[in-house]
Specification:
This protein has one domain. About 75% of the residues lie in helices and about 0% in strands. It contains 8 helices and no strands.
């Protein structure tokens, strides 16, 4: 519980620091805002439905398998098929805002030390599970950044602007975790769970503003990956 509170406060500080100043224009021109909102809503709706699709794929079982397939197919269908454009339009490219990238690098360093360096120094055991590593620190951070930031947030940016987009994408990021881990399975919320969801919502907003300021999925993906690496047993 104290960790969630501390990192939520850290996220809010970095959100305040990164959000200041001008934003790069969104890669999608708001020629048809209604279409952007409809497509963002469709993607969000698919995310909610995916939790009820269950099959086995590689070492994954249940809805994570469907989540992975959706995350890989959605950009191909929505960007290549429906929009007929390249993935650079959802920022598969190197960052542009160097100042924001410096702040991201500092945050990455804080995370690395706080999550991965200090615990072993305090006597925490180190183990490695390659399946857990690939799932939690490589695959699913990538899938979530593509969906939440690259696809949903980009469309909201084109319709409503950058600030509203990263706030809404962060709120939906927190709600999605509540939906998956509590609402769908009927699990009641404890105080620690509420704090964790607040942490995840702030984390989603932080990833959103990093994405909006750097115009690249790479920085938000790296922060997301190091966070997941520290939270799940390897």
């Amino acid at each position: 519980m104290p960790t969630s509170i501390v990192f939520t406060l850290i996220f809010l500080v970095f959100i305040f620091l990164i959000r200041r100043g001008a934003y790069y224009p969104p890669p999608l021109l708001p020629r048809r805002p209604a279409r952007e909102i409809i497509e963002a809503s469709l993607l969000a709706g698919c995310l909610l439905i995916v939790q009820f699709i269950r099959f086995d794929l590689f070492w994954l079982s249940g809805w994570p398998s469907a989540y992975l397939v959706f995350g890989l197919l959605a950009p191909m269908v929505m960007e290549w098929g429906v929009r007929r454009r390249g993935l650079s339009d959802i920022d598969f490219r190197m960052p542009e805002n160097k100042k924001a990238l410096v702040l991201v690098t500092i945050l990455f360093g804080i995370y690395l030390v706080a999550r991965l360096v200090i615990p072993p120094l305090l006597g925490a055991a180190l183990t490695f599970n390659w399946q857990g590593f690939l799932s939690y620190s490589v695959i699913f951070p990538f899938v979530e950044e593509v969906i939440f930031r690259g696809m949903i947030q980009t469309r909201l940016e084109a319709a409503w602007g950058s600030v509203q987009a990263w706030i809404l994408s962060g709120l939906f990021f927190g709600f999605h975790h509540y939906y998956v881990h509590f609402l769908v399975i009927g699990k009641p919320l404890a105080v620690t769970d509420v704090l964790e969801l607040v942490f995840l919502t702030a984390f989603g907003m932080l990833l959103g503003v990093i994405y909006a300021k750097t115009r690249s999925l790479l920085p938000s993906y790296l922060i997301h990956a190091i966070n997941n690496l520290s939270l799940f047993p390897m």
